[in-house]
Specification:
Blueprint: H1 3-7, E1 18-22, E2 30-34, H2 42-50, E3 56-58, H3 67-71, H4 81-88, E4 92-97, E5 108-112, H5 113-125, E6 135-140, H6 142-145, H7 162-170, E7 176-181, E8 186-190, E9 197-204, E10 207-212, E11 252-256, E12 261-264, E13 269-274, E14 278-285, H8 291-308, H9 319-331, H10 335-355, H11 359-364, H12 366-374, H13 376-395, H14 397-400, H15 411-425
Parallel strand pairs: 2-3
Antiparallel strand pairs: 1-2, 3-12, 4-5, 4-6, 6-7, 7-14, 8-13, 9-12, 9-14, 10-11, 10-13
Pfam families: Cupin_8
GO molecular function: 2-oxoglutarate-dependent dioxygenase activity; catalytic activity, acting on a protein; metal ion binding; sequence-specific DNA binding
GO cellular component, one term: nucleus
C-alpha cells in the first residue's frame, strides 16, 4: 500500500521516528521533533500534523542535500555573502525596517540586493547597530525570479500545495519566499495569508518562534478588537486595554536551529525572531486538509468589510460588489476568484483521474508531479474536500448576489462534474 493509501484511510499506524520534546522555557509546551528521514512518511505527517493541525519540527537531515545549504553558507555557518552576491547581486528585493511600526507591520522598500548585503555587513561590523535601523529582507520571490538556481527541493510532506498550484497556473503570483536578516531582525505577531499552513526552513542561523494555537489570539485582542503588534510588550498586562489577556495560555516556544524546518499549522498566530544572522526559505500553502479554514476566513473577512461600510449599503447600488473589491484589496482574493481557485484544483484532479498519470506531463507539471508522488487516492480526497467547500460557496448568499455569468462552468455544473468523477473513481 502506498503512502497516499495510508493517508486517505483510517488504518494509520504509530511511527517511532516521532518524539515529543518539551519546548524550552515553557512547562508543558511542546512540539514533536521529527529526526529520521527514512522512517517518517507522508501518511505519518498527514495523520499526525495536517489533519489535527499540530506543529512539528523536522531535523536538519531533511534539508542536507539542498543547494542553498551547501553554497549559501560559510564553513562556520554564516551567510556566504560573496556567493550570494555572485548569484543575485543585480536583483531588487523587498526590505522591511524592524524598528518602525506602520499600522500592524513594518514599512517596506525595494532595494538592490547588493546594497542590502553592503548594509548587512556594515551592520555586523558596527555591533548590530545602524542609523538606518534593523533591516530585514522579507517575502522575496527568489524561486520565481531565478528558477534555474539550485536552491532547494520542496519536501514531499508539503507537496500538496493548492495555493502555489493555482497561482502558477494563472501566472500571477506565488507564495514561495526567501527571508534574510541580521541577528535581532523579527516579524511582528500575525497569522499567515488566508490562514494557510506554512513551513519555514533555516538555511543558516537560528530563529525563536512564539506560537499561539488557533483561537488563542482572541484573548490577546485589545478592547477595540485589535491584535497586538508585539505579544511580548509589557502593555498587554494592562487589563484596561487588554481585558482578556489573563485568560490566554503561554505561547508554544520553538528555537529552530540551522537546517531545521518548522511546520506552522493553519490559523496559528506567531511572532518570530532571528537569534543569529539567518537565511530561511518559507512557503504558505493550502490543501484539502485546511481549505475549509480558508473559506471560513474569507467569510469572516467579508463580514468585517460589510460592517465597516454598512452605512453606505442603501445609497450604493453595487454595495455587494464594492465589498468584494475591498476584501480582495485587503486579502488578495474575492469570492469569484476563490471559485476559480477551487475549479483549477478540481479540474487538475479530474484530469489525473480520467487520463491517468503521464510521466512526461508530470515532469513538467508540478501539480501532476505531486499527485504522482502522493497517489490517485489523494486526488480523490482532494476532490471530496473541494466538493464540500464548493457546495457551501454555491449556497452562500453573498456569492449568489454576484454576477456569476462569467464563471465557466457554472457552479452547479462543476459540482455535478466533480461528484461524477468521484463516483467513477471509487467504482
Amino acid at each position: 500500500m502506498d503512502r497516499a493509501t495510508f493517508a486517505c484511510s483510517t488504518a494509520f499506524f504509530h511511527d517511532s521516528s516521532t518524539s515529543s520534546q518539551a519546548a524550552p522555557g515553557l512547562p508543558g509546551g511542546h512540539v514533536d521533533f521529527i529526526e529520521k528521514v527514512d522512517s517518517f512518511t507522508y501518511s505519518d505527517f498527514f495523520r499526525d500534523y495536517l489533519i489535527p493541525n499540530h506543529p512539528c519540527i523536522f531535523s536538519a537531515k531533511f534539508t542536507e542535500d539542498w543547494g542553498s545549504r551547501r553554497n549559501w553558507v560559510t564553513r562556520d555557518g554564516k551567510p556566504n555573502f560573496d556567493h550570494l552576491l555572485q548569484k543575485f547581486g543585480e536583483a531588487v528585493v523587498p526590505v522591511a525596517n524592524c524598528d518602525v511600526k506602520e499600522y500592524n507591520s513594518n514599512p517596506k522598500e525595494q532595494l538592490p540586493f547588493r546594497e542590502y548585503v553592503s548594509y548587512w555587513r556594515e551592520y555586523i561590523r558596527n555591533g548590530y547597530r545602524s542609523s538606518r535601523g534593523c533591516l530585514y529582507l522579507k517575502d522575496w520571490h527568489l524561486s520565481r525570479a531565478f528558477p534555474e538556481q539550485d536552491v532547494y527541493t520542496t519536501p514531499v510532506y508539503f507537496s500538496s500545495d493548492w495555493l502555489n498550484e493555482y497561482w502558477d497556473a494563472v501566472a500571477v503570483d506565488d507564495y514561495r519566499f526567501v527571508y534574510m536578516g541580521p541577528k535581532g531582525s523579527w516579524t511582528p505577531f500575525h497569522a499567515d495569508v488566508f490562514r494557510s499552513y506554512s513551513w519555514s526552513a533555516n538555511v543558516c542561523g537560528r530563529k525563536r518562534w512564539l506560537l499561539y494555537p488557533a483561537g488563542q489570539e482572541e484573548f490577546l485582542k485589545d478592547r477595540h478588537g485589535n491584535l497586538p503588534f508585539d505579544v511580548t510588550a509589557p502593555g498587554l498586562r494592562d487589563r484596561r486595554v487588554y481585558p482578556r489577556y489573563d485568560q490566554s495560555q503561554p505561547p508554544v516556544e520553538i528555537v529552530q536551529e540551522a537546517g531545521e524546518i518548522v511546520f506552522i499549522p493553519s490559523g496559528w498566530h506567531h511572532q518570530v525572531y532571528n537569534l543569529e544572522d539567518t537565511i530561511s526559505i518559507n512557503h504558505n500553502w493550502v490543501n484539502g486538509c485546511n481549505v475549509a479554514i480558508m473559506w471560513c476566513f474569507l467569510q469572516d473577512e467579508l463580514a468585517a468589510v460589510q460592517r465597516e461600510i454598512n452605512q453606505w449599503k442603501d445609497p450604493m447600488d453595487d454595495w455587494h460588489l464594492q465589498c468584494q473589491l475591498i476584501m480582495k484589496s485587503c486579502t488578495g482574493i474575492d469570492y469569484k476568484e476563490f471559485y476559480n481557485f477551487l475549479k483549477v484544483i478540481a479540474e487538475n484532479r479530474i484530469s489525473v483521474l480520467e487520463k491517468g498519470l503521464d510521466e512526461e506531463a508530470s515532469a513538467k507539471d508540478t501539480s501532476k508531479a505531486a499527485i504522482s508522488t502522493l497517489g490517485m487516492l489523494h486526488a480523490v480526497f482532494d476532490l471530496k474536500r473541494t466538493v464540500k467547500v464548493l457546495t457551501s460557496l454555491s449556497a452562500n448568499e453573498d456569492f449568489r448576489k454576484l454576477d456569476l455569468t462569467s464563471l465557466s462552468p457554472p457552479p452547479e455544473a462543476l459540482l455535478h462534474h466533480l461528484k461524477a468523477a468521484i463516483d467513477t473513481a471509487l467504482l
